[in-house]
Amino acid sequence: MKKLIVAAALLFTGFLSAQKLDNSLLWKISGNGLKQPSYVFGTMHITCDATLDKSVLTALDNTKQLYLEINMDDPALQAKMMNGAMMKDGQKMSALASPDDYETVSNFLNENIGMPAVLLDRFKPSLVTMMLYPKMLECPAQSIEMELMNVTKTQNEPMFGLETIEHQLAIFDAIPYKEQMAELVDMAKKGLDAQKESNKKLDAIYKSKNLQAIAAYMQEEENKTYGDHADILLDDRNASWIPKIEEAAKATPTFFGVGAAHLGGEKGVILLLRKKGYKVEAVK
Q1: What's the predicted TM-score (pTM) here?
Q2: Burial classification of residue 79, based on how many CB atoms lie within 10 Å of its CB (0-12 exposed, 13-18 middle, 19 or more buried)
Q3: What's the pLDDT score for residue 5?
């Protein structure tokens, strides 16, 4: 019996060790019939410094097309976003919070984005929260995705999306609107200084390139929506992306740029690709 326990412990330790990923945001995908490697890169959607390092630029040079989470080069993107921004069934933020909390949110929005809540009353609260992201930085906001797009445009190469903007926005219909509103109320009460500190913490973790630390951060109390709905926001989407990543990589060398939180973990893109038989290795 003792031998069995020791053997099980060794297997478990080996399993944990096998799941540990190197500190890297850029990963090369090869093997399993691919004629040339493709790359997957973990992005941060909004940041103070979107400069791409040499290894990323080299990977872009060695690939022939760019896939982001959505096709951000779609000329109809803005219109599609507006169509999918509203809550279903005529629901309103004003009905999802107490009058006092709604007033707190309204004053907070007016102060930071120049709009009272009444002008955004039918918007999904999580999307209203996202409007505040640039204010959480103590610098002009930059986008890593935009930098990837700029390089791809200079190379005259095509750009695509792993999912549609309609699908991405529909995710916020699957998360209870009341929970989204509670998070917005909490942000309004704490003020932007608390959010700025949280963002500094995330930025430092991102710069460390530690995917396990990024995954752990997303589970912290301050990120309750992500922690409670990781299946909807991360896991399900990762699984749906794998066939599309495979198809694109088999057709031509491809650079994939997705939020860094999608890469690590047992249900992350890296291990899902490895389970399909691909060699996925960190690019240092």
Answers
A1: 0.90
A2: exposed
A3: 34
